[in-house]
Amino acid sequence: MAMMSLKIWELASLALPLVIILVVQTIFILLYAAFLLFPLIGRNYDAAVMCSGLVGHGLGATPNALANMNAVCERYGVVSKKAFLIVPPCGAALIALVSY
What we know:
With 100 residues, this protein is an all-alpha fold. 83% of the residues lie in helices and 0% in strands. The protein contains six helices and no strands. Helix 4 (45-59) runs antiparallel to helix 5, helix 4 runs parallel beside helix 6 and helix 5 (62-76) runs antiparallel to helix 6. The longest helix is centred in the N-terminal third of the chain and has 26 residues, at 15-40. The chain is elongated. This is Sodium/glutamate symport carrier protein. The chain crosses the membrane at residues 12-38. One of its GO terms (biological process) is L-glutamate transmembrane transport. It comes from Thermovenabulum gondwanense.
């Protein structure tokens, strides 16, 4: 119902600012994960999978994080049990804290 009542032509002026915000957020989360978090959590395979989860959380929500981590694990053929045990509960707890 809400989507049906939207007047798209009135929202067109927001397209450029939204694209700019999305690009800046993407660049920031990638730099943060690669240069700050990855070295802090060990520079190993588990750290790489956890960083991919962080990028998923940063650009979406817990399902995005799980999809990113799953893609990395499928690409290299090794499942990081540590990452799959740490990232989802931490992300869910942080989302629960922020949403209240």
